[in-house]
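User: My collaborator sent over this chain with a note saying "see what the structure looks like." That's all I know about it. Can you take a look?
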Amino acid sequence: MKHKVQGCIIPSSDNDVVVVEPFSRWYDADNHLDAAGMFILEYPEVNCKDILVVDESYNLGSYPLDHAKMSADYIVGLRHYSQQKT
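Assistant: Without extra context I'll predict from the sequence alone. Here is the result:
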């Protein structure tokens, strides 16, 4: 399913007024969190607090940046799902 992901780069500045322009992109992913991870892989400079995701059925998701980065780690294989042995 296609997911549209939105994030932004918040410039560090001492000025009173900071203009932040969000940017977004469509991804073909299995779920919202995977789409957020793909977004972070493409735009690692994103530093906003939350990553916003919407799918083609208008289901909305909002993920903390750290969760999206963790999803990106799983996508590239830096983290692995643990398999429990019984």
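A starting point for your reply to your collaborator: The longest helix spans residues 65-76.
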